[in-house]
Specification:
mainly alpha, Arc Repressor Mutant, subunit A, 2 strands
């Protein structure tokens, strides 16, 4: 029986999409000296874990034989890849989340903003309104000095001659530290693909927001202008949503009540590249 033409078209489109999304990932892998064999083991492990966790038969325990059938891997290979040590970037992810929450609290929490709504200058430890109290309120049980050192490292804060802390950036963006930047690769790209996966499966009325605007014949000057414009407006939107979500999040506002527990996120990115001038317009 010949394959269903609709299914064949979907399979070809998926293969083309995978080739496209793998190219920038493989570029990163090669730059960091990760050979194909190491990547293949990681891919096999994700295949096995996903089959185990998300493709079970209701009421039946998932077996290695079924995982083998689903993934196309032998049972021996299924067992081998699950026994490999698991890479762990949780430290970098936690550091990113905690530092981001501190900056967010500093810019929106009225206890730490001035009469104009800007972030106040804080003593490190002294007083009820200090950097240490800000960290305790918005980042939980973590040493304030560790957060201060991290924010200083990425030039988000600075100490003045009196030892007070000034906020220099309204967002936490690692400027150095490869582990921190690579942790963002894992979390942010994963969220984007999960969003697209959701939209592929759900009815239109339940789709998550997913939009992009793109032009391919911009001169250099307008390209720089749109990059700056996008950064300013996107930051403004993110700060507005941050305040709205924080007021409804149980960690930031313990008085919030309601059933269930959801993680919600909005990500915005900008990208540009040179286009061969001989390409058709």
């Amino acid at each position: 029986m010949s394959p269903n033409p609709v299914q064949k078209t979907a399979a070809e489109a998926l293969a083309a999409a995978v080739l496209t999304l793998l190219r920038p990932l493989v570029r990163v892998l090669l730059r960091y000296g990760v050979p194909y064999g190491a990547f293949a083991d990681l891919a096999k492990r994700v295949y096995v874990e996903t089959a185990n966790e998300e493709f079970t038969i209701p009421g039946r325990k998932q077996s290695q034989s079924r995982v083998s059938v689903l993934t196309g891997l032998s049972r021996k290979e299924v067992k081998r890849v699950t026994s490999l040590p698991r890479p762990d970037d949780q430290g970098a992810v936690d550091r990113y989340n905690r530092a981001a929450r501190v900056i967010s609290g500093w810019t929106r929490d009225r206890e730490y903003t001035d009469e104009n709504g800007g972030p106040t200058v804080l003593e490190v430890e002294a007083g009820e309104r200090s950097f240490a109290s800000l960290v305790r309120k918005h980042s939980g049980d973590v040493p304030a000095r560790a957060i201060l050192d991290e924010l200083t490292r990425v030039s988000a804060v600075a100490l003045d001659e009196d030892g007070r802390v000034h906020l220099l950036a309204r967002a936490y963006v690692p400027q150095s530290g490869e582990a921190d930047k690579l942790a963002i690769l894992g979390t942010d790209v994963s969220d984007l693909i999960a969003c697209i996966d959701h939209n592929l499966q759900c009815p239109p009325e339940d789709a998550y927001f997913q939009r992009k605007v793109s032009y391919d014949n911009l001169p250099d000057a307008p390209a720089r202008e749109v990059r700056d414009l996008a950064a300013k407006r996107a930051q403004r939107l993110l700060e507005e949503l941050d305040g709205w979500m924080a007021s409804r999040d149980r960690d930031s506002n313990p008085d919030v009540v309601g059933e269930g527990r959801k993680r919600a996120a909005l990500g915005i990115y900008f990208y540009e590249e040179d286009v061969d001038e001989d390409e058709p317009q």
